[in-house]
Design brief:
Layout lengths: L1 H24 L9 E5 L6 H8 L13 E5 L5 H7 L4 E4 H9 L1
Antiparallel strand pairs: 1-2, 1-3
Length: 101
């Protein structure tokens, strides 16, 4: 009986830890005119290179190692970002709200 309880507790903790990440990864792509967060490999400032190769404009003065905010300008912007090496393109507005609160 105690091993079963430990297993259930571990599964509950794992589910609690994974929920925020799953929420971010499963959200819809940003729409035209909104800010997106481009996540890419962390070496060589790759997210910045993905945005530059996609001919899109960065938003904000702060950049992370594997994340850059970008303005989604057309319906094809998200597809172009993925084609140029983005791992994820998340809704930047939701990310900014999480960071402020």
């Amino acid at each position: 009986m105690p091993i079963r309880n430990v297993t259930l507790i571990c599964l509950g903790l794992l589910a609690s830890a994974c929920t925020p990440v799953l929420m971010l990864v499963t959200q819809l792509a940003p729409s035209v005119g909104n800010v997106g967060l481009v996540i890419s490999k962390p070496w060589d400032r790759s997210a910045k290179n993905v945005v530059a190769t996609s001919n899109l404009h960065e938003v904000g003065p702060i950049q992370g190692y594997f994340g850059v905010f970008v303005m989604i300008e057309t319906d094809d912007s998200v597809r172009i970002l993925y084609d140029n090496g983005a791992w994820f393109v998340l809704d930047g507005q939701i990310i900014m709200e999480l960071c402020v609160s």
